[in-house]
Amino acid sequence: MLMDNLLAEFFRHHHPNPPASAQQIAAFEARMGWQLDAEMRAFYLRSNGGGLFAPMPNPKYGILSLDEIQRARVAIRGRDQESAGPASHFTLVDMQDTDFVIVDVAAAKNSRYPLLDAFHETYPDEAPCIAESFEEFLEKALRSGNRAFWLGDGPPEK
After folding, report:
1. Is residue 32 within 8 Å of 90, Cβ to Cβ?
2. Torsion sign (Cα): 39, 134, 107, 121
3. 43, 138 contact by CB (below 8 A)
């Protein structure tokens, strides 16, 4: 129920993309080798990415479309090698300047993937968990006032 309320808020006050089709999701999952969890699937069936607080292409919270999601080590380090980060880390939210919120598809708990902070200067050595699920992340992001909620970086932007 919470996810339905969060999606409704996203559609009322933010900048959703058109939805992904079931075929697009199936193609994404086949290409990536992992399946969206139920919360992420619900989001992408309603909106194939989008911006929080500002429209694409440059919101602080840019939820990537299925076509834009890639291995974090490729997006951040430019190479698909184990030394550049785990193969199970994938970009999910572009926070600008090659900083991302990433999903760890190897660490599911209760069939939900945790979300991690991938700061370009410290990734992959540091990638702290900032939300236990996409639902938790979306709730905190929507309440953040357009701040990176896990950093406590000052008052909300107007």
Report:
1. yes
2. positive
3. yes
